[in-house]
Amino acid sequence: MVDLIDWLVEQGYASTTQRNHVRAAARLGSWMVAEGLTLGNLDASRVVRMVGEDNARHPEHRSANENVSAVVRFLGETGHLRPEPEACAEDSPAEAFLAGWLRFLEEEQGQGVSWIYKARRLGRAFLALIEDPSGNLCWELVDVAMANDFLGRVVTGYSSSTAQSEAVLLRGLLAWSAANGLINEQVSLGILSPRRVRTGLPKGLTTGEVAALKGAVDLDCSTGRRDLAIIVMLSRLGIRAGEAAGLTLEDIDWREPSVRGVGKGGRVLVLPMPVDVGETLVDYLRVRRCDPAERSVFVRSLPPLQALHRTGVTEVVSKHARLAGLEGVYAHRLRHTAACQVLAGGGTIRQVQELLGHANLASSMTYARVDTESLRRLAPSWGRLP
């Protein structure tokens, strides 16, 4: 128990939470006595079984029993828990195929983490349709009609851009299948393209809205300085939520000063660090609380004090946008805001491309439509057409 309490303090758990976990450890000890177990023959699966049995007998214990998971993590990290027996079963044909395709996307095509995540999700859903009860893949079931029917179900309710991405992924999966001799190559060519809906102008926040968003942050809160640093960085540098989540302490060069990030496709971006970004980062890093071995810049506020995920970064923006009365504002709106600020300050589309890290200038050209001052000079005066 003494070791557990020391560990809970090191992990940053609040005093109330520490007491709850200690009670959970005592409950675990009672189960072990009833089962005739010692730490030498206790493993995680046995704990899961005991928790399940207690929840079934006493549903009112369910909430308290959730605290046992932290105790099990402590036992595992400190070597008190017997390791689980290693699984000797080989990957199923579906998992083996999916692993090969994902490896191809990462190593041969250089796709990033976000694209790999989407590919894994779509691939598993598709392969589940052709997997028989014995685990084998029935490729003879795959034809153009079946694939398009699957695509239609997958994209229902999603935006035009998401539907386009899913179609590209499915086309790629089928092309990989054809390259491995599993299906006819004509199947991938028959995948329909979802209707592309022309999107509106990229919409950034006004100067007043950005100020309101930053003003909604409570700097007296334990996470306030972190959240402000995230908002300022995204709105000034135009980086994506995933890129902010992936920043490490080594990515910040205080002498330059600059910030190094990894964008889509593994492209490395080195962006100058404005004064306000540097100031908010310094204010946050002075109170940043985590394990000394954790090198991520932005970390969770609750144990385990590890790197904040991309969804956590997005939630920081959306939470304070709601507090500021700005509905429908997420992390990507701050990326648009940064691009629009460049143009409003007299910058060029090429500078927008460099800031956002677009591989192709065409991706940045959509912002030309919001550069009204430049467009106004191209429009002839009314009544003076030659």
What proportion of the residues form beta strands (DSSP E)?
under 5%
CATH class of the largest domain: Mainly Alpha
| Tally of discrete structural domains | 3
- The shape, in one word, is flat
On the 0 to 100 scale, the average pLDDT is: 83
Q: Give the count of helical stretches.
A: 19
CATH architecture of the largest domain: Orthogonal Bundle
Strand order of the largest sheet: 1-2-3
* Integer-rounded radius of gyration: 26 Å
Q: What pattern of helices and strands is seen along the backbone? A: HHHHHHHHHHHHHEEEHHHHHH
CATH superfamily of the largest domain: Intergrase catalytic core
Describe this structure in words.
- With 386 residues, the protein is mainly alpha-helical.
- It has three domains: 76 residues, no CATH class; 97 residues; 169 residues, Intergrase catalytic core (hpI Integrase, Chain A, Orthogonal Bundle).
- 55% of the residues lie in helices and 3% in strands.
- The protein has 19 helices and three strands.
- The protein has a three-stranded antiparallel beta sheet with strand order 1-2-3, with no helix packed on it.
- Strand 1 and strand 2 form a beta hairpin.
- Helix 1 runs antiparallel to helix 2, helix 6 runs antiparallel to helix 7 and helix 12 packs antiparallel against helix 14.
- The longest helix has 21 residues.
- It is flat.
- It starts with a helix and ends in an 8-residue tail after the last helix.
- The mean pLDDT is 83.
